[in-house]
Write a structure and sequence with these properties.
The complex is a heterodimer. Chain A is built from 8 helices and 7 strands. By secondary structure, chain A is of the alpha+beta class. Chain B is α+β, with helices and mostly antiparallel strands. In chain B, the strands form 5 sheets. In chain B, strands 5-2-1-9-17 form a 5-stranded parallel beta sheet. The longest helix of chain B has 25 residues.
């Protein structure tokens, strides 16, 4: 099949950028979306034009490196699927697709479809961990975790940090990403001692990174390739409220 | 060069303890005066960087991806082994040690493997403490599953995303240290050379992948945790960015490369579907717990699988290996799949696939339990192939997955360049000629959390390290070389893309140095690869500049290194006139087609010393001795 692409081209962070039209004439239905972009890039290199820069690595839907907007939807039209796992059989001959980078103030464009998601790392560095230095932990079976808790923690821990939730949110909020980590660790007994401190620190960091606030729109849940549920945001809000009242987590405010 | 493995002697159970006691320590107050450079943020590099910072060292950590959380450890699915014996099924440290030495076809160092088995139990404790959501039973206790090459249930798992969860544990520990100021993180920064001063590793030359700036970082030691080199084959289960550049350039600076031909072919991957294919996707080995592997009894059977009655199916693994059945080790399963396809009994359009069938398991256990165990893998299979594995058997075929070979290291994980350590898949250490499933995660974390943080002190405490800065002649020299290579790639402006060369190299390697090898084929490859490499430097086409994000340029440097490494792999495969583990030479097999080792002549680690591009490297042998597990014909019958 023939696919028409309109791709955001931007040389670097300061360049203005524009949409450019390309055609890929021989797309096989079994190709992945990124393989289709590989074919386009080979075509461009052949013609002596600069290939389109896009982030990708594992191509198995787990590293979280790939992703762009496809016709206004993060990771394209198929639910629960990263761009690398989206196959061309979901499109038809002659389709016109508009590809844009994640749009969020906290994710500045580096080049073409590549953005800087360093803000996510800084959110985790602020509090998205359990302080268990190597060697300090008891036997694995000394900490019992009810299966339901471990299953729900795993549901939240499945987040791949791709940034689709932020890109799709009209407020560019990172609440689904933060809520996922806060729920994962908060559902486990090991995560309790730092539970309040964690949520306060992460929320404060999100403000610093200029992520927006959550207004419960739910676009994030709709595009999340790992189908993280909105409920994680409710958990985060609950923990935040509790931390604010108890005063234990508010240590950071004194700094 | 003489190799000194520094492997302790005496009773194997206490070797690591006694060795640790003999290692020198560094006073906590002095640790902060030392800088350690860690390259790579996977399970090995990430856990090492976090732990070294916890100990008080200043750490500078580098990765080429946009975040340390992207490292390819994240894609490991099935699980991590540990000798906890929580199931009371006869497991022990000794049994894990035994299984690993045997699984590696008696080509690994006993002391290392025993230490790995001992540490395996600490890893689980550490990961649980960090909040890794391992699967649990209703009682709240940890759950286990079985894996290939073992008859006990010792594999801990987090659904089909164990690697992801373990990596996130290490990543979060690392981010915590970054937040505390102990680790300085450099994402999107690629190591392009090793700086050696007065015979010691003192730093690295890197390229900032966004600005293109080439600069150097100096430290007291350098740790490489940069993964394996399976992408030599172009098509593999590795991430697209996985590359050998860091270890290869360190090799060119004096680090010996051990057993380069030991590559692992994973038996259960989704088959190739077309020329555009950019990578292969693995379906976890854990599927072989419940899935049954078969092909039609008849050649070129045109019927769909559902219309082939049970008595016309050949469950060839169960038939040939009744005691291990579908759970034979990876090398055995892969070779058998190739054999039945070579007989013309392969399935699917290309006839290069076998069935992995869950019909019986679904009948026995119910669809919902199968969904709970493998749901995400089934979803992934359906997304890629458009077929539903609950109703139609999966089609699978072997693919390049892991490389047991890597830089040679001693018992302390130090390479032959003093001050340079190598951890995880990047080293050659623990898996011999074949790695068992769920052991890569174990080794990566053992090296990073528990081995390296103990052994690195000894070097720092006992070495006199002169103060060096980035104006040193050796630093400028290395920077200039990197800049010159980059310029050369950009100025060639030939006619063929980097990928087209890489594909061609990959096909050559799969053909001649893949699942089975012959002296004749390897000689052909050794004639063709240098010619292709020369053509590459004449005709490669890399557009754009060096002072911007330029993904073609990044790839071009990595493929240039793959060419040189490919040649070494073929040479090593040709020199090793025996079959062992993943290295199968057609000339050397038992009457029933199993790998035939030659312990009399080849019971050694082959470590190669670089002698210049195109020159024959020098072979240095580290003899292997087996005091505990006595080499025998590996049998899974």
């Amino acid at each position: 099949m023939r696919i028409v692409l309109h791709i955001w081209r931007q040389r670097n962070a300061t360049d203005k950028g524009r949409m450019v039209r390309y055609e890929v004439p021989n797309v096989n239905e079994h190709m992945s979306f990124l393989e289709m972009l590989d074919v386009l890039n080979e075509q461009l290199i052949d013609k002596g034009e600069d290939p389109v820069a896009f982030d990708h690595d594992c191509r198995e839907g787990i590293c979280g490196m790939c992703g762009c907007m496809v016709n206004g939807q993060a990771h394209g039209p198929v639910p629960g699927t990263t761009l690398c796992q989206l196959h061309m059989r979901h499109f038809k001959d002659g389709d016109e697709l508009y590809l844009e980078p994640w749009r969020a103030r906290a994710f500045p464009v580096i080049k073409d479809l590549v953005v800087n998601r360093g803000a996510f790392d800084r959110l985790i560095a602020a509090g998205g961990f359990i302080s268990a230095s190597t060697g300090s932990t008891p036997d694995g079976n000394a900490i019992l975790v009810p299966k339901e808790n471990s299953d729900r923690a795993m549901d939240a821990a499945a987040c791949i940090g791709c940034g689709a939730c932020v890109a799709m949110c009209p407020n560019a909020s990172a609440s689904l990403f933060m809520g996922a980590k806060i729920s994962h660790l908060g559902l486990l007994p090991q995560g309790q001692p730092e539970r309040e401190r964690r949520v306060v620190a992460m929320v404060a960091q999100a403000k610093e990174e200029l992520f927006g606030s959550c207004t419960n729109i739910g676009e994030c849940e709709a595009v999340c390739p790992k189908e993280i549920r909105l409920e994680v945001i409710a958990r985060m809000n609950k923990d935040f409220l509790k931390a604010s009242w108890s005063g234990r987590g508010a240590l950071r405010d004194d700094e | 060069m003489e190799l000194n493995s520094k492997s302790p002697t005496g009773p194997i159970e206490t070797r690591w303890d006694r060795h640790r006691f003999n290692l020198k320590l560094v006073n906590p107050a002095n640790k902060r005066k030392h800088t350690i450079i860690v390259v790579g943020t996977g399970l090995a590099g990430g856990s090492a960087a976090a732990t070294l910072s916890e100990l008080g060292y200043k750490v500078k950590c580098f990765c080429f991806q946009d975040s340390p959380r992207r490292a390819h450890s994240i894609a490991a699915q099935g699980g991590i082994n540990a000798a906890k014996n929580y199931h009371n099924d006869g497991d022990s440290v000794y049994r894990l040690f035994y299984d690993t030495v045997k699984g590696g076809d008696f080509r690994s160092r006993e002391s290392n493997v025993y230490r790995l088995a001992q540490i395996s139990v600490n890893i689980i404790d550490q990961c649980v403490g960090q909040g890794v959501p391992f699967a649990r039973e209703y009682s709240g206790y940890l759950d286990n599953r079985s894996f290939g090459g073992a008859q006990v249930s010792r594999t801990f798992y987090a659904r089909g995303q164990t690697g992801q969860q373990l990596l996130l544990g290490a990543y979060q520990a690392l981010e915590r240290q970054i937040g505390l100021g102990g680790v300085q993180m450099f994402p999107r920064t690629e190591m392009l050379d090793l700086i050696v001063i007065d015979g010691k590793a003192r730093g690295i030359v890197v390229r900032d992948l966004i600005t293109g700036k080439i600069e150097s970082h100096i430290g007291d030691t350098v740790v490489l945790g940069t993964g394996g080199y399976g992408n030599v084959y172009y098509l593999s289960t590795n991430a697209k960015g996985s590359n050998a550049t860091a270890i290869w350039r360190a090799h060119k600076r004096g680090a010996l490369f051990a057993n380069p031909c030991f590559t692992q072919i994973h038996p259960t991957c989704i088959p190739v579907s077309g020329d555009y294919q950019s990578k292969l996707t693995l379906m976890s080995e854990s599927l072989r717990n419940d899935g049954r592997v078969w092909v039609p009894l008849k050649k070129d059977d045109p019927r769909p699988p559902s219309q082939i009655p049970p008595n016309e199916r050949d469950y060839y693994l169960e038939r040939r290996y009744p005691s291990f059945g579908n759970l034979v080790p990876r090398d055995v399963a892969s070779r058998n799949a190739k054999m039945v396809c070579d007989e013309g009994r392969g399935v699917g359009e290309t006839k290069l696939a076998v069935y992995l069938d869950f019909r019986d398991a679904i009948e026995r256990l119910g669809r919902s339990l199968i969904k709970e165990r493998y749901g995400n893998l089934f979803d992934m299979y359906e997304r890629i192939t458009g077929e539903d594995p609950y109703t139609t058997p999966m089609r699978i075929y072997p693919a390049i997955h892991y490389t047991m070979g890597g830089l040679w290291v001693d018992y302390n994980l130090m390479s032959t360049v003093p001050g340079m350590y190598v951890v995880g898949e990047a080293n050659f250490s623990d898996h011999g000629a074949n790695r068992l499933g769920a052991s890569a995660l174990m080794q990566g974390l053992a090296d990073g959390y528990f081995v390296l943080p103990n052994t690195i002190n000894d070097y720092i405490a006992s070495s006199k390290l002169e103060k060096v800065d980035t104006n040193h002649l050796a630093v400028k020299d290395a920077e200039n070389q990197v800049a010159a290579t980059t310029r050369k790639l950009l100025e060639t402006r030939g006619t063929r893309s980097v990928d087209s060369f890489h594909r061609e190299l990959g096909k050559l390697m799969w053909e001649y140095c893949g699942m089975s090898r012959t002296a004749e084929g390897l000689k052909q490859a050794l004639a063709q690869i240098p010619a292709l490499r020369e053509q590459y430097w004449r005709e490669v086409k890399v557009l754009g500049n060096g002072d911007e994000l330029n993904q073609s340029l990044e790839k071009a440097g990595r493929v240039a290194d793959f060419f040189e490494l490919a040649e070494l792999m073929c040479l090593d495969a040709l020199e090793r006139n025996e079959s062992c583990g993943g290295h199968f030479r057609e000339e050397y097999q038992t009457p029933d087609g199993e790998a035939q080792r030659d312990d009399e002549h080849y019971s050694y680690t082959a470590a190669w010393e670089f002698r210049g591009v195109g020159n024959r490297p020098e072979l240095v042998k580290e003899p292997l001795t087996f005091e505990y597990v006595h080499p025998a014909q590996r049998s899974y019958k």
